[in-house]
Amino acid sequence: MSTEATLHQKAILALSDGTVAEGRAIGITGTTGGEICFNTSMTGYQEIFTDPSYHGQLMMMTYPHIGNYGTMSRDDEAHRVMIAGLIVRSFSDHFSNPVADGSLQEYLVRNRVIGISGVDTRMLVRHIRNKGVMNAVISSDITDRDELVDKARQWDSMEGLELATRVTRKEAQTVPSDGPWKVAAFDYGIKQNIINSFVQRGCTLRIFPAECSLDDVKEWEADGYFFSNGPGDPNASAHYALPVVNYAKSTGKPLFGICLGHQLMALSEEIPVRKMFVGHRGANQPVKNLKTGLVEITTQNHGFAVDENTIHDSRAEITHINLNDNTIEGLRFKTFPGMSVQYHPEASPGPHDSSYLFDQFLDMIKEAAGQ
Amino acid sequence: MPKRNDISKILIIGSGPIVIGQACEFDYSGTQACRSLKEEGFEVVLINSNPATIMTDPMMADAIYLLPMTTDSIRTIVEKERPDAVLPTMGGQTALNLARDLQHEGYWEKMGVKVIGVNMAAVDITEDRQLFRDLMERIGIEQCRSRTAESLLDAKEIVEELGGLPIVIRPSFTLGGTGGGIVWHEDEFERKVLRGLELSPVHQVLIEESIFGWKEFELELLRDDNNNVVIVCPIENLDPMGVHTGDSVTVAPTQTLTDKQYQLMRDAAILMMRSIGEFAGGCNVQFAMEPGSDRLVAIEINPRVSRSSALASKATGYPIAKIATKLAVGYTLDELPNPITQVSSACFEPSIDYVVVKIPRFNFDKFTGVDEELTTQMKAVGEVMSIGRTFPEALNKAWQSLEIGRSGLGADGYSEPDRKTVRERLLRPYWDRTLQIRNAFKFGTSVEEIADITKVDPWFLQQIRYMVSLENRTEGQSLNSIPREDLLELKRAGFSDVQIAWLLSKSGEKIVEQQVREKRLSMNLKPVFKLVDTCAAEFPAETPYYYSTYENENESIVTGRKKVMILGSGPNRIGQGIEFDYSCVHAVLAAQEMGYEAIMVNCNPETVSTDFDIADKLYFEPVYWERVLDIFEHEKPEGVILQVGGQTALKLGKRFVEAGIKIFGTEFEKIDFAEDRGEFSKFLKRLHIPFPKYGTARNADDAVAIADRVGYPVLIRPSYVLGGQGMRIAVREEELRRYVERILQTHPENDFLIDKYLDKAIEVDVDSVFDGEQLHIAGIMQHIEPAGVHSGDSTAVLPPYSLSKLIIETIETYQYRIAKEMGIVGFLNVQYAVKDEEVYILEANPRSTRTIPFIAKATERPEAKIGVKVMLGAKLSEFDLTSKLKNWAIKEPVFPFDKFPEVKRELGPEMKSTGESIYFMDDFSDEHFRKPYEFKNLYLSK
Fold first, then answer.
1. pTM of the predicted protein model
2. Catalytic annotation on A203?
3. How far apart are CA A6 and CA B561, in angstroms?
4. Alpha-carbon distance B729 to B754, whole Å?
């Protein structure tokens, strides 16, 4: 039975390629595993840990001090922690924030998270940057390094993994607003701030689970359809998500997708989505809006991307690109009124530069409604 | 938008001489700007009166004007050069003010010169508190709440509204804020309000809420012509509101803000920058945030490159001035690559995976009677920056960088103050606050109590308490039994071997630094070097910019080339400033031209030598023995160059000799010997060179006996000091005794010297380079002020204006004899006094000096490079040594007395000036000569 890690209790991080690092245990004791990824945001750890898109991943923060300002409920992006484990350089046992609910340690314990502190995270980031993402395990109860490396090797690969149904709502839910618009949102792991962004703009949301009945969706008669972010390989979610996307397209109402939602909308137009070598995870990614020429600093969190070589002019137009590697960040579809972005305009954590996309979607809804 | 093609010739305005608040960071930004424009094919015209700048080197611009920083000079240049544009944002407030004055005259428009990098209307807004306030109100950015009172009754009501004391009083329309200030207590309230009402010509006072103690933050922004904005670096001040940001300990990135709070600040900063007008360039915004709420108040916005942007550049690796310059000439951020990674975009916000700490350096010891409390007016003369993987590591390294003899944040053998002293010292903000916090924890004070007294955010306090807990644990341990993991934890928290030795000595046997070093090396505990790459390792980076830390992976790959390590001069201070950075940069270039890989070590973020593309490898590290040796052992260079880093580098000479490490140039024993007055005098006697009579004393009675023998007045000088620290002139016995007692308090260990003071003698300062055979006299400078005024504080004229041919020949002969007999290889500076046609030697310095850059600018000879190349084996016959100086060049010192109104303006053997400018003169009727000549004896004091 895992218990709260005590100060100075040792923990080991083992990667599937045999790389091993030692540190001290944080959160609770035990063994956990998943795909190891890194995030370069210097603030917003709690939002990251609760982002459902990170479900099942071992999160390594590149900023060394984590836990400085404790945790508070307003910073949760979901009702629980989503990451499978946490790797940091220097865990703050104490925090400073007069309005916090408690320390990060208390929060990790409450959410049953296993973690490790004190490792050379920069070395591991460079390792992953060169070798590509891989699986790893963190353990404070197994001390045999070879056994841990074996465990990492046997961990399920993210490729082909369907995870959205593990984080989605079980029941459809309505979130009211004081505005006239009705948006059907499909929850593959929707972040709280996406919900807030719609409600603030006067959109009442009906949030449907990842696997939902098409009849229920039809019955609600939405003014627009939103496809959320979420974890896992989009190809593995296609079998239940694409029928809904295709239905939404058939209504003639506007569609909007973020992250996994963007990938699903692309898949529905037969644009393939592939796994990236490292992925983009941070709050400093430059995205250029090709329509306006303006650049937005964005929050990103994705390990899969739309393949830039396979977009046919008749299907979609590239609206946004990443300035670092020229990958596709946004599409405007041509066969139906829809747009989608690979990044996170709802931020949280991260810059607010892209919140205009919610306004644009609302404009599309208004236009479709003849206003 | 690509590069503008409507302009081809650009005028850059520099910042002039170094003053408090405007130091060599503007040489750094100016140099980056010049290089950036040259790279784009622009013709660059430059004005700066500061000769000790790299930006005024011939290779930096097409036309360089070393003229006084006045609108008249600029007009002269513009009329001659007819530039298409002016870039006024790289030269601090000086440049901005000059550009603004000319703008108001309509001069730029008249001459068809476009102002780039800033919008002059934006400067007007940011310089005018009321305009700024109104604009912020319009765009919904909160300011300190305030209301105007016309009576005591009004004032009382307003205080109620604002939630009580403390409040700030600002009388309307009084000059320089006279009658204003903070009101802490009821009993002073009425008096201060009434005084303010009386002093105000319109009998109004502004009652403003006090945000003293709020958290303070600074953001560095860049904007392009498309209105894209990025934040390069958020900085958090450890010292809360109430202390000038230049005097505050600051930390990057922010440590105590949640993402929601930070984004609030980011949004506000972007909104503010966009609101002040359209322009492409850099900008700095300061905020205060109330602890425990998200209340954010804008303090100010500066639409130019600043001291903080130099810090932010060094902290992240992102070259703000370089990119800001490219934006000013039309590029947009998305068109530019990140110069550090080459593969990613410059249009992004750096992410760092380490902690940066900046600590300012003060020189209060120079100014008797100065008020040391830190306020909203800047008092620091320099700063150090350190990089560590954690805050404790960076904080300890910063204290090692300061060069005040400390080996970290306490626990290094210095006497520990008592509880009462610590408490008193914490009540007000002083320069050593972090150390006093550490001391308070040693007494078992709680985080809450210290937070309550100092308002420093508890997170920082918890980190310092953690450092103290490591101290306490180590105190009970012994060198033999300390476990590796404990030693590793100490090293990871930045503790030096000296600190660890001191802590381990507590339980018995005395342990020294070397033993700790050997112990940890036997346990394979040595630092690795990690890269500063702007992106937290997300992308591979090309730039060789490193810091040390105790981790697993080393990233600094040692090449097979022959290498030389150059030690920088550490933080700027009076007596050792930009002139040494200038020489360091030239040393790097000289070494490279001689086929060496040049490795630079320095910790001053305001410098050009720490720019990532100057040296082949840059280690941003304390110029502190342990750190320097760690780098040396990693790189294994052929040897080190110490003669360009001022006393900072030279102080380590003995240790290099002991470690058997090669020092290039003059043998270190010879350098050391010049400091030993007894030996040096014997040497002079042997060469038949006169020097003032002197004696060595250990106490007041000795001193008096010597003074009686040599005759008053006498000069008292402690050994091994810089910038004449502690030196005084005494005319009678009581005075002599008083000064001696003072010296014994601060330097109890040292002998000191009593020299016969040569009254009304002429002082002559001579810089030269000797290669073993030939002597190159770089310059003979005759001072206008009499000997007794420190050479750094004197107005120096090159060449001499009144010395006879015979005297000059005598000086040249002496200089040659000393160089030859001392075995000089490289620089030799000698200071002479001439009295009654007799030449006396005052001192000899076998190193690069403050005056080397001045001479280089005056003669247009690369003096620093020549000296370093000779040190590395070149012969003087290989250089063109002709001087291009016509007539005379004058070095004019600049003083900080305006910043310390409580200090008397007087000059003596202890240096007080912060910087200098150069002036070219054709005849002696020039007022730059006449004025100092007229007043030459006026300020001479003791």
1. 0.95
2. no
3. 49
4. 10
HEC profile for B597-642? EEEEEECCCCCCCCCCCCCCEEEECCCCHHHHHHHHHHHCCCEEEC
CATH 3.30.1490.20 boundaries in chain B: 145-209, 693-756
Which of A44, A284, A347 is closest, CB to CB, to B349? A284
What's the number of domains chain A is made of?
2
How does DSSP assign A162-175, residue by residue? Answer: B-HHHHS-SS-EEE
The pLDDT value recorded for residue A2 is 66
Do B169 and B181 form a contact (C-beta atoms < 8 A)? yes
CA distance A150 to A137: 9
Residue B812 has a pLDDT of 97
Which residue in this structure is represented by tokens 């005591």? B152
Which one of A37, A203, A212, A259 is the catalytic residue? Answer: A259
- Listing DSSP states for B546-582 in one string gives EEEESSS----PPPSS-EEEEE---S-BTTBSHHHHH
CATH code of domain B761-934: 3.30.470.20
Instruction: Looking at the structure, give the CATH architecture of the domain made up of residues B693-756.
Output: 2-Layer Sandwich (3.30)
Among B258, B540, B553, whose Cβ lies nearest the Cβ of A75? B258
Both A279 and A168 in one domain: the answer is yes
- Residue B727 is encoded by which pair of tokens? 């030196």
Please answer yes or no on whether B459 and A98 come within 8 Å at the CB atom: no
A90 and A25 in a common domain: yes
> Chain B within 8 Å of A23 (Cβ-Cβ)?
no
Residue A2 placed within a domain: no
pLDDT (tens digit, 9 = 90+) per residue, B471-502? 999 998 999 999 999 999 999 999 999 999 99
Based on the domain organization, do A217 and A142 belong to the same domain? no
Q: What is the pLDDT of residue B185?
A: 87
**Residue B148 near residue B322, CB atoms below 8 Å:** no
Mutating which of B217, B227, B232, B259 best tests the A interface, going by the most A Cβ atoms within 10 A?
Answer: B259
Say yes or no: A293 and A364 in one domain.
yes
Q: Inter-chain contact A323–B260, Cβ cutoff 8 Å?
A: no
Q: Is residue A159 part of a domain?
A: no
Q: Please state which architecture CATH assigns to domain B528-648.
A: 3-Layer(aba) Sandwich (3.40)
CB pairs A-B closer than 8 Å: 157
pLDDT-based confidence at residue B778 (cuts at 50, 70, 90): very high
The pLDDT of residue B296 is 95
The residue out of A110, A126, A154 marking a domain boundary is A154
Range of the domain at A121: 10-154
Look at residues B4, B67, B74, B78 and name the one whose alpha carbon lies nearest to residue B37: B4
**Sole residue written with tokens 């370089």:** B322
Out of A21, A72, A323, closest to residue B347 by CB: A323
Segment holding B928, helix H or strand E = helix B927-934
Quote the pLDDT of residue B467.
98
Q: What is the side-by-side order of every strand in the sheet holding B167-171?
A: B146-149, B205-209, B167-171, B181-183
**Counting every residue, how long is chain A?**
371
Residues A276-294 have pLDDT tens digits of 998 999 999 999 999 999 9
Is B350:A284 a contact under the CB 8 Å cutoff?
yes
Any catalytic annotation for residue A221? no
pLDDT tens for each residue of A153-163: 999 887 888 99
Contact B536 A96 (CB under 8 A): no
- Provide the pairing of β-strand B114-115 with B85-87: parallel
Contacts of A121 in chain B (CB under 8 A): 353
- The closest of A91, A113, A119, A105 to A14, measured between CA atoms, is A119
Q: Which tokens in the block code for residue B55?
A: 């930006």
